[in-house]
Specification:
The chain is of the alpha/beta class. Helix content is 29%, strand content 25%. It has 3 domains: 5-342, ANL, N-terminal domain (Rossmann fold, 3-Layer(aba) Sandwich); 371-461, Luciferase, domain 3; 465-597, 2-Layer Sandwich (GMP Synthetase, Chain A, domain 3). The strands form 5 sheets. An 8-stranded mixed beta sheet has the order 2-1-11-10-12-13-14-15. It has a 7-stranded mixed beta sheet with strand order 7-6-5-3-4-8-9, sandwiched between helices. Helix 2 (30-41) packs across helix 3 (56-72), helix 3 (56-72) packs across helix 4 and helix 10 (292-300) crosses helix 11 (322-332). The chain is globular, with a radius of gyration of 25 Å. It starts with a helix and ends with a helix. The mean pLDDT is 93.
Length: 598
Amino acid sequence: MTIPREQTQQIIDTHRTAAVAMLMRTDYLVPDAFEEQAARLGERTALIYEDEVVSWRELEARSAHYARIALASGLRPGDVGAVMIENRPEFFYAWLGLTRIGVIAGLLNTSALGIALAHALRATSAKVLFIGDECMAQLCDTEDLPLDALTIVRIPDAATPDAPGHPQARDVDGIDTSAVTANDLRPLRAGIDNRRPCFYIFTSGTTGLPKAALINHGRFLSVGAGWCSVVELSQQDVLYCALPLFHGSALMSLYSTALHAGAAMLVRRRFSVSRFWPDVKRWNVTAFQYVGEVVRYLVNVAPVPEERGHGLRVIMGSGIGIDVWQRFKQRFGEHVLILEGWGATESNANMTNFDQKPGSCGRIPFPERSHIRLLRYDQGSDELMRDAEGRYILCRPGEVGELYGQIRRGNGEPVAPFDGYTTVADTEAKIRRDVFEPGDAWWRSGDLFRFDEDGYFYFVDRIGDTFRWKGENVSTTEVAQQLSVYGDAETTNVYGVKIPGHEGRACMVALELTPGHKFDPQAFHRCAVENLPVYAQPLFVRILPQAEVTVNYKLRKVRLRDEGFDRKVVADPLYGLDRERGTYAPLDAALLARLTTS
């Protein structure tokens, strides 16, 4: 039964009203919200890390200490201090400490090294770097660092006792703060409003180097206000964070919500499928931020006693397909609310599936009440389509298009701000002007969607991941979802590979098998031919010992795509589609010749 459009719109309006109300409080900053909660909640739990419990009072005191260390290191309001610390309490001490003195935090990827690390420090113009011992080896191995104007503050890590030293690093516990006389930190941020940057988050760029996206105080706080208006969360709740805090999903979505609600947050450095349900049970976890691969891990692992009778009641994130959605509900409880959505760190547009429609990432019940539009996209030419008069074309139900969020109207009236990045060039590259009327401006997502007759949106693919074969467009996301019914795979990574003498790319899939399972070529063949059109059926299968993922658990494709089915560089088992025998067979010279000449 389809939820009435007005019912969905009412939830969207509630969410939007709460978010806008927070944005209107222009003199209210992230540190103001934090200090209010710390004063109100005192000894209640703010953070949980392994066996350590940090109260709001302790978090306030420790972040104030780090604020004084930042001041003693030369930082002043408006400066940038970089943070490179994995998921542990010290991340919050450093980040909150910087915000409390009006300093912008540059949140660095804890896996960054070499050119990427040097670029990130330059892009933020950071004057001080708070770095955990767990990241010191990367710093020491990186050349061409901007060291002349950089103070390095080293944060000890019990898990990395043998971290290398750096000649320019100062130990956090050895910095003299006696000259810092400010007891009240609030005057230091006087004159800063909520439109000023609170922190920079790095997001992937088309050039290969990350871009520093600006996140202001108002936007951060509005996310938490919006979520808490539609999901009943309070200081009684415990939110689970296993995604990296330098990424938007964890900090923007989860911690902003925990801060607004006064809830505790459990942090883990990395997601552990074996520890998840024991953690949920032990610490009474009620909410969880996910990405699709994490949920797939949970439904594929063997059952554990703690997964029954748990208190988990809501999970929120992106990337769950219909099959995983249904398996999660059946196994872990129909009562668990799945809030599947879509958004981007720097975007001015997002959506959430409040209606529990499996597979959908959100709904726009009434397009005239939304600033989001879907423009028809030609996947063959990789361009937006235009009509006979040269105008862009809005999608109809079932048509694939790129999602756009309106920034301003043609008359200059603002609609939804896009704060962009630290460079004008990067910001302008994401804006398209004069789309529907002269003078208008729209943020372009780079993501393809389709929607149905009821206004439910479905993610199709990232532009660039879709490929063309035999004159047809193949979506890596949709192929992976269809192949997910093959029960022996832990992960399914789909990509296109070049075949000499052929136009486009052929479908190839890399599988990481579920522990204890073997690849069944005939079963996989049945899955492919029963669920996919001929042009989208994988011609090649690669069996991986372990899938390669990003720090945010997204599957990496570039190396797999570059290596293709080349036996000179691929040592993993390779199979080819043998249509004559109705199976996938080991890829020998004869089968390869048939596949590459047909």
